[in-house]
Structures are given as structure tokens and as C-alpha cells.
Amino acid sequence: MTPRSFLLTPELAEYVRGSCETPDDVAAALVAETAALAERGEAPATFQIAPEQGAFMQLLTRALRARTAIEIGTFTGFSALCIARGLPEDGSLLCLDRSAEWTAVARRYWDRAGLGNRIELRVGDALPSLQALPVAETFDLAFVDADKTGYPAYVEELYPRMVPDGVVLLDNTLRGGRVLDPHSDDDRAVVELNAALAADPRWETVLLPLADGLTFLRKR
Question: What average pLDDT does range 29-46 have in this prediction?
């Protein structure tokens, strides 16, 4: 049940993973535990990012020399683990998620990786938590992987809180290909947002076909 892009066959997905840096024991154990939760029906399988996306996000965090990051939608903590590993020792990651149950798994693995001191977790609805933050240019990097109908509000609230040239990553912006034939409110929300962002002069925007679609926004 390892997540893979809908654009790849299982064989090609395995080749992609094999051509990336191998997850260490902590990351591999977290991916395996999350997969086991999904197999038992205790967690949604679709909430976990693919291992190659995690490797890319860790590399990107380092390449951007990000020091302050925020994540909206943490689940069991794999994406946060990757981002935190890309930060310098004095860097910080703020995670917003509504589930105390799933983020309890995340906390265990962050501590095992020695990263607990870099990550602050706030449990509750993400939008009020985000709105409660100071309206100041604070974050170098943001990752959003939460309720899709909430994406437009998250992007609006993040904009004044990102530093100039700050990067926002939006996950699942291809919706398994359903952007071409939306089936749900989530699908329609993403289609409308993709069109709006492409025309928004505040952001430099690119949608990459990585995993289930990963949109990059650079604050101009």
C-alpha cells in the first residue's frame, strides 16, 4: 500500500523509488506503520504522500535554505519529518492538524528521528489556527495537504505570512486526473483554484505532475 502516482504503473513507481535516496530506518518504519493503519481501515491510505515526494521535499527544503516552515495537514507525520530534516538545526516547522490520534503517531517518529525540538504541533481546525498567527512575513516554505475545499482560504492566509520569494506547495492538485472531469466538491474546488492561481499576479505558479500533482507558488 505504498502510495504512488496515478500516472505511473506499479513497476515504474518501484523504479522511481529505487532511483531516489533510500529512506532511513525511521522514515521507512513510519511509512510502514501508516500503511498498516490503512490496511486495517484505521486511517485513509490516500493521506500519505509518496516516498519519492518526501525525498524531493526534503531536498527542496535544503536547496531553498528554508529556516522557518509551516505545514497544514500533517496526518502521521511523514511529510513533516522530511521537511524538518531539510531545515538547519535552528530551523522550525509549525504543523497544523485536527487529529490528535494520527499526529500522536507523528510525534513518536519525530522524537525517534531527533527532530521533536524543531517541530511544533497545534491540534485543531487549521484555518482558525492559521488566522491566529501574526500577519507578518515569517515563513520561507509552506506545505498544504488538507481539506481541498479549504485550499483557497489557506492560500489567502499564507500569502501575507510568507517572506518574499517564499514557496508554497499544494498537494493533490491533479486529483487523480479528475481535474479533467470533476466528480466532487473537492475536485471542483481544486479545478477552480488551479485556474485562479495561474492568473494571480501575486504568485509565480507551476503545477508539476509529481505524485498526485504538486503546485509550486513563489511569492513575488
Answer: 84
